[in-house]
């Protein structure tokens, strides 16, 4: 079964795995892990100090712009004003590169440096300003269903609830809230994209997110921080496929007691003397 693409704003995306570029030991390892993941969309923090490594090499030298669609993000921003400024900087940068990614942004407005939880007020404020400025805005948020609904109503192209705190590797801590978000945001609008973002630690976390019904998963640390990033990148790619197919295959119901795989009627028994 071929997995169909998803549409986010004006973008059609073939791969449902979105991968970040931070925390890799080297740019070469990042490049190879991205290739192994099979992703199409690569997120890039566009603040100037993150674009160049200690040797003066640009991250863009290791990203094939013919292969990947860049998704600039506002990682590290703690106010709506800073996030809007960073988004516009990203658009300017990608326009200069001739990248299609200039038209969209992954919005992050964080509340504090310890938890890295999203600031809901700042996120909503920045979303409205960026939407008015012509961006397709993908909004990172908590797993609060009410906030997710507010972001969609304000014009988000995609809502991206966190599975758990950024970089924590705890997986999807509250699948029930994610289910509620999916139900509410897709009610009457089944193609609206909901992407689980943050906290993914391993392939099973990705599969769970997809089995719940998410349209995709965005991750970074789960691959970059693995002992073998290349193997984990491939595992994440396969997990997207497994979770997508399982969600549509229809799992068997959970039962308290056993149910035999083979019928018990007519079982040949031992002769009794």
UniProtKB/TrEMBL annotation:
Pathway per the UniProt entry: Cofactor biosynthesis; thiamine diphosphate biosynthesis
The protein's Enzyme Commission number: 2.8.1.10
Keyword Transferase: yes
Classification via SUPFAM superfamilies: ThiG-like
Domain (Thiazole synthase ThiG) ranges: 8-263
InterPro entries referenced in this protein's UniProt entry, alphabetically: Aldolase_TIM, Thiazole_synthase_ThiG, ThiG
Keyword Iron-sulfur listed: no
Keywords, alphabetical: Schiff base, Thiamine biosynthesis, Transferase
Catalytic reactions of this protein: [ThiS sulfur-carrier protein]-C-terminal-Gly-aminoethanethioate + 2-iminoacetate + 1-deoxy-D-xylulose 5-phosphate = [ThiS sulfur-carrier protein]-C-terminal Gly-Gly + 2-[(2R,5Z)-2-carboxy-4-methylthiazol-5(2H)-ylidene]ethyl phosphate + 2 H2O + H(+)
Enzymatic class: transferase
One example GO MF annotation: thiazole synthase activity
PANTHER family linked: THIAZOLE SYNTHASE (PTHR34266)
Purpose of the protein: Catalyzes the rearrangement of 1-deoxy-D-xylulose 5-phosphate (DXP) to produce the thiazole phosphate moiety of thiamine. Sulfur is provided by the thiocarboxylate moiety of the carrier protein ThiS. In vitro, sulfur can be provided by H(2)S.
This protein's name: thiazole synthase
